[in-house]
């Protein structure tokens, strides 16, 4: 089955996932690395032809090649236990590190440094930095379970001066471990006014906001009841 992920930076919804087990723990099924909702569209005509022109990354040795999507807890634990003498491992994600999410709140007030709560994928599995194993900073934009191919697009920051680089990866086993997002339980104002520290830059935003509020509160004429 061919599946195209529209406006997606990570895979957001996979069939046969028991979503009730996630809801009972107060988290939602994986979405993209940003908070916007990802829409999955299944197409079988023109989109499939578009992906067929992507350059491919073929297997370098006989056997099944594991491909890992994401660099969160599950993905990093899986990679750490891989025997690269047997398998050629490929991993791609919009992030090249794993963040220790329980420690992110400590970085907001200076108890921990930002760099101390993140570990690069290359340090956890040094074999990814050596051929034939690979790590790519890219987003997943499509999946063909019939052909066993994942379609990727390079990560861009802001406006790119050139067309994004697209490619496809053939896999033997596919591991989707892009994490989960907290649920707001439809409480009004939570999504607009709360911070959800899932990544290092989220903690940096909280720290900047806190310092800004403290500085603005010192302005002459600012009352204690003034909302900053």
Instruction: Evaluate the radius of gyration.
Output: 20 Å
Q: Average pLDDT value?
A: 75
Number of domains: 1
CATH topology value: FAD/NAD(P)-binding domain
Structure commentary:
By secondary structure, the chain is an alpha/beta fold. It has one domain (2-216): FAD/NAD(P)-binding domain, CATH 3.50.50. It is built from 7 helices and 13 strands. Strands 1, 3, 4, 5, 6, 9, 10, 11 and 12 form a 9-stranded mixed beta sheet that branches. The chain has a two-stranded antiparallel ribbon with strand order 2-13. Strand 9 and strand 10 form a beta hairpin. The longest helix is centred in the last third of the chain and has 17 residues, at 200-216. The relative contact order is 0.19. Mean pLDDT is 75; it is low at 6-46. Belongs to the NADH dehydrogenase family. GO terms for molecular function: NADH dehydrogenase activity. Keywords: FAD, Flavoprotein, Membrane, Mitochondrion, Mitochondrion inner membrane, NAD, Oxidoreductase, Peroxisome. It is a peripheral membrane protein.
Short summary:
The protein is α/β, with parallel strands linked by helices and 228 residues long. The protein is built from seven helices and 13 strands. Strands 1, 3, 4, 5, 6, 9, 10, 11 and 12 form a nine-stranded mixed β-sheet that branches. Strands 2-13 form a two-stranded antiparallel ribbon.
Compile the SSE list and pairings.
Layout: E1 2-6, H1 19-23, E2 27-28, E3 39-41, H2 46-52, E4 56-57, E5 66-69, H3 73-80, E6 90-93, E7 97-99, H4 104-108, E8 118-120, H5 121-124, E9 134-144, E10 149-154, E11 166-170, E12 173-176, E13 181-182, H6 190-193, H7 200-216
Parallel strand pairs: 4-11, 5-6, 5-12, 6-9
Antiparallel strand pairs: 1-3, 1-9, 2-13, 7-8, 9-10, 10-11
